Amino acid sequence: MESISMKVLSGSYSVHQLSCNSIVPAAVYQEEFFSITQTDEELSIVCDSRIDLDSEKREDEFACLQVLGTLNFDLVGILAGITSCLSSAGVSIFALSTYNTDYILLKASKLELATKALEAAGYQIQRSSLNA
């Protein structure tokens, strides 16, 4: 398989849990990166940590890695390879996928450990100037 490139997104992110009938605050939609997932049991929002939401639960201080490029739906094992590498390094993750690609959220305190483990496994990591 061709080498996978990833980018460390700038900023700090939070994962919020709200009740399933909650309304998504307009401030979330103003951000460059956010994710909203609703089920019959909950509404989960991932967004910039600076946004204060009326959450039932909240986890803070996540860094985010983006898999660069558009991933074809026929590709197999992209997330499995990344998560296996990070698991072996003792790094817990929260994965998100979009139509184009995958995102890996992990505690910011584990970012250096995670990027070193990924690089040792052959992944290319681009660091933003804020996270260098």
Short characterization:
The protein has 132 residues and is α+β, with helices and mostly antiparallel strands. It has one domain (5-131): VC0802-like (2-Layer Sandwich), CATH 3.30.2130. The chain has three helices and seven strands, in the order βαβββαββαβ.
Topology of this protein?
Blueprint: E1 5-18, H1 26-29, E2 35-38, E3 43-48, E4 57-67, H2 78-88, E5 94-97, E6 102-107, H3 111-120, E7 124-126
Would you mind describing this structure in some detail?
With 132 residues, the chain is of the alpha+beta class. The protein has one domain: VC0802-like, CATH 3.30.2130. It has helices at 26-29, 78-88, 111-120; strands at residues 5-18, 35-38, 43-48, 57-67, 94-97, 102-107, 124-126.
**Number of DSSP helical runs:** 3
Share of helix, binned = 10-25%
- Measured between the Cα atoms of the first and last residue, the distance is 27 Å
What is the global morphology?
Answer: globular
Question: How much is the average pLDDT?
Answer: 89
Question: Which strand-content bin applies to the residues?
Answer: 35-45%
Largest sheet: 7 strands, mixed
CATH superfamily: VC0802-like
* CATH class assignment: Alpha Beta
Provide the number of structural domains: 1
- H-E string: EHEEEHEEHE
What's the gyration radius in Å? 15 Å
CATH topology: VC0802-like
Helix/strand/pairing category: alpha+beta
Q: Number of DSSP strands? A: 7
Q: What ranges have pLDDT less than 50 throughout 5 or more consecutive residues? A: none
CATH architecture: 2-Layer Sandwich
